[in-house]
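Now read the record:
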Amino acid sequence: MDFKQLAFYFFAAVLVFAASMVITVRNPVRAALFLVLAFFSAAAVWMQLHAEFLSITLVLVYVGAVMVLFLFVVMMLDINLVRLREGFGEYLPIGGLVAVLLVLEMAIVLGSGPFGIEQMPEPAPLPADYSNTRALGRVLYTQYLYPFEIAALILLVAIVAAIALTMRRRKDSKYQNPGKQIQVQRGDRVRLVKMRAEKKS
């Protein structure tokens, strides 16, 4: 076993460990931090598979933006941890069944059957000046242009919906109008009252 295989199995083991801790840890902040570790491990595995663009994108987008947002939301929300611990056992059989199905599917794909990887032909070696980023962009913006545009439109609708849900006024929250705050005058805030001086008896 050479160094590349050893590094691959190491990062794969860390990835499996971090992913299992994400779904078993009951503290949401720790689960988010384990998810960051899983993203870094997946990026390292993709780097070894010569998918440098996807690896850097995973680190920059998910770890640098999405996970920061997740941590911000989790820390700002008042999550009842007692209720989360009570409902953990109810969904355990369903989660175990889904995990078993995923393991069976991966065994079928990675096995030597008709759907296995061993049936696939060996890819030709790539030249030294090959860029997978250029190849990915060429395929994405030519062959898969319409699905890419549809996905972008769906993301735009999701962003608009999230902004609309955030900006709506709730009855139980106090709201201040910034326009009225800017237009206020000194006479509206401060009133000078003249009173006669009184002598102490």
Observations:
- The first helix runs from residue 3 to 24.
